[in-house]
């Protein structure tokens, strides 16, 4: 394998986009010719290595007024034109619709296509239209990369058999960060403010924490998704009269400096693909409390009671109880933090890259044989 192409919607800052950027840059660094084929450009995007070639395969300005079905077929057509021109040795699609487009566009080229599941399949791959497309298209996939075992178990055996479970790679800046000797009385979270992250539940939990420990504050870092969740969080803050101790910090370019200042890291998601934010917090040596959300990402890295706590999804009382436990037991929090930081041994860029490289090399070799 000499050339590899990744296909996804865009590189706007998010989970799948960060993984593709890290992988593309690492493959380029290792001497592979790398293409990233995206549907559109955004203002707030991850930066690609200059050795990576980015190609626009989305709609043209003249396509915008066309019908929905026509637009879908044009997206497939433009991706097909990309494959015809650049002829990568393997095509790797990331995320829901990109998986379908890649498998449709690749018909007739013989280029092995690897799809990647980046979200909880329940609710995203179980609609009537998804079931039809999966039955029609997924058998064409040369392989599939999952993030968790629960994701893999959702799909038919034919897809499970030729697949891999590969964790998301950590940004190196979160590994080996300096932790302050004296922590601030802060519970912290960093994640995009969007419905499934369930920040309102986190505020409910912190209200209980604050009753027991009124000198602590909650800081939530992360951009607004503009889906109405921030407004719900603000209403929760007002409802509990926490305006002076719960702070929505917005985006932060120095999150690796801010997170370690806090005493406890709390994660409240209802579901995830794989929670990069939680992984980053653990790598930074934070004692963490997380919901045991599907499809099993937190459970892959947290051993409950050994390097963090897991609590049921939506249970703000359990979340509050475990946060208080870590506030009150400094020795336990310190031990959890040290154990949590060891996640960098299995989720560093080099380790994750080698798993992807070995799997894709195997896929390409099997295709040639």
From TrEMBL:
One of its GO terms (molecular function) is glycosyltransferase activity. Transmembrane segments: none annotated. Keywords: Transferase. Residues 14-171 form the Glycosyltransferase subfamily 4-like N-terminal domain. InterPro entries: Glyco_trans_1 (IPR001296), Glyco_trans_4-like_N (IPR028098). Residues 179-342 form the Glycosyl transferase family domain. PANTHER family: GLYCOSYLTRANSFERASE (PTHR12526:SF630). This is Glycosyl transferase GT4 family. The lineage of its organism: Bacteria, Bacillati, Bacillota, Clostridia, Lachnospirales.
């Amino acid at each position: 394998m000499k050339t590899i192409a990744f296909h996804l919607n865009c590189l706007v800052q998010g989970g799948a986009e960060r993984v593709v950027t890290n992988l593309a840059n690492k493959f380029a660094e290792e001497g592979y010719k790398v293409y990233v084929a995206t549907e559109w450009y955004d203002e707030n995007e991850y930066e690609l290595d200059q050795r990576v070639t980015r190609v626009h395969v989305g709609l043209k300005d003249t396509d915008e007024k066309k019908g929905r079905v026509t637009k879908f077929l044009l997206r497939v057509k433009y991706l097909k034109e990309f494959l015809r021109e650049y002829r990568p040795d393997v095509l790797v699609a990331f995320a829901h619709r990109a998986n379908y487009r890649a498998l449709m566009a690749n018909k007739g080229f013989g280029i092995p296509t690897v799809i990647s599941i980046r979200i909880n399949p329940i609710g995203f791959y179980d609609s009537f239209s998804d079931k039809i497309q999966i039955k029609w298209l997924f058998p064409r996939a040369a392989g599939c990369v999952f993030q968790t075992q629960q994701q893999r178990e959702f799909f038919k055996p034919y897809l499970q058999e030729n697949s891999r479970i590969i964790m998301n790679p950590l940004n190196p800046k979160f590994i080996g960060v300096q932790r302050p000797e004296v922590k601030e009385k802060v519970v912290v979270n960093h994640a995009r403010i969007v419905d499934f992250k369930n920040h309102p539940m986190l505020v409910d939990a912190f209200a209980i924490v604050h009753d027991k420990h009124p000198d602590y504050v909650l800081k939530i870092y992360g951009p607004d998704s503009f889906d109405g969740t921030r407004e719900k969080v603000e209403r929760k803050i007002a409802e509990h009269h926490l305006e002076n101790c719960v702070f929505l910090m917005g985006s932060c370019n120095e999150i690796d400096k801010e997170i370690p200042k806090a005493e406890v890291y709390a994660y409240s998601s209802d579901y995830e693909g794989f929670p990069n934010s939680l992984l980053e917090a653990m790598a930074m040596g934070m004692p963490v409390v997380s919901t045991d959300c599907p499809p099993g990402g937190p459970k892959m890295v947290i051993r409950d009671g050994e390097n963090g706590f897991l609590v049921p999804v939506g249970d703000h009382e359990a979340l509050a109880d475990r946060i208080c436990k870590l506030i009150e037991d400094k020795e336990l929090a310190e031990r959890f933090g040290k154990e949590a930081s060891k996640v960098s041994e299995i989720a560093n860029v080099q380790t994750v890259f080698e798993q992807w490289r070995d799997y894709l090399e195997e896929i390409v070799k099997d295709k040639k044989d």
